[in-house]
Amino acid sequence: MQRSHPVFFAAVIPLLLTSCRQAEPARPAQGPGQGPVEVEVAAAGARDAPIVKEWVGTLDGYVNAEIRAQVTGYLLRQAYKEGSFVAQGDLLFEIDPRPFQAALNEAQGRLAQAESSVHQAEGALAQNRARLGKAELDVKRYAPLVKTKAISQEEMDNAMQSRLEAQAAVEAAAAAIETAKASVVAAKAAVYDADVKLGFTKIVSPLGGIVGLAAIQVGNLVGPAGPPLTTISTVDPIKAYFTVSEQEYMAQQRAGGPEKWANNLELVLADGSVYPRKGTFFMADRQVDVGTGALRMAALFPNPGNVLRPGQYGRVRCVMGVRKGAAVVPQRAVIELQGAYQVAVVGDDNKVAIRPVRLADRLGTMWVVEDGLRPGERVVVEGLQKVRNGSVVSPRASEGNAK
Length: 403
Known about the structure:
Layout: H1 6-23, E1 37-43, E2 45-67, E3 73-78, E4 85-86, E5 91-95, H2 98-147, H3 153-199, E6 202-204, E7 209-211, E8 221-222, E9 230-245, H4 246-254, H5 258-261, E10 266-269, E11 280-284, E12 294-301, E13 313-330, E14 335-337, E15 340-346, E16 352-363, E17 366-371, E18 378-382, E19 393-397
Parallel strand pairs: 1-19
Antiparallel strand pairs: 1-18, 2-9, 2-13, 3-5, 3-8, 4-7, 5-6, 7-9, 9-12, 10-13, 11-12, 13-17, 14-15, 15-16, 15-18, 16-17
Helix pairs in contact: 2-3
């Protein structure tokens, strides 16, 4: 076997290494992402922005009346359309009136008997008074005769006894009249009670408002101990209940109380639209909830046409004041990340600083920045996905620059 010469290998190895290095691709001196990124920027403007507060609100009727049966009986008919507007005094339900009509007739008969007893007692009194008068005349006539022995003492004694008996009969007849009159009063009360119960068989609306669904059916036995038959709510105006924190309440008091700031309330409905009519402050609850530290309040909103209904949710909004010279930026300049907000601020050296901000309210297409940004600072509005904290950018002024 022939051996390889070492000089040959020494010459070949450098050639192989050189060919490997030449096969590697040429690397550019600077990658395409390392140059300045072109972005659009806008300077944060300065505006006098309103300080707006919002609270979650629940609508409720100004008055909510539960309609209950006042007497026990079978429901004969329902006289209203569910969900409609009813006026005060409109018939809602009718209970079978026949047992109550019979009770009224019986009470009226007892009243007639009591009144007849009064007349009889008055007649008996008149008769007894006539007897008393005759007895008194007999005593007066016998008095001189007994002195002259024209009549016996026994006859005189009998006349005096008759006068005493007549006097007692008069007093008894007068007492009988008072008893009969008392019976008349009781009978009249029974008639009134029966008449009232008969009237309760027609259940009418105690107020004007929207009447809800009937909780019972025709033919059911209803009574005072049973559940409400339905509910009527007065909804014009309608109440909006909302809760404010104890700190907000104290700030309101320092500003003059809720009555001062809360006469121009707005209601933002569940679909995001703003109710066209302004509300006014109505009341604050008597105490702060010790568990939540919140105070319940209520506002009144006009509701012609009954558009708003109890149970709806919305946001009660109020302008609390004006923030002078607040920084405003376009909404597209704001980055939201897990409930926190950031903006990309471009410094004088064109370096980007990702800065957290606290937002206040919206003004059209602009955000009012409460903290974290000053008016005049530049923020990225286009190309946010291409910038990082500390990266260098090539800024270009946006046509929608904040003013």
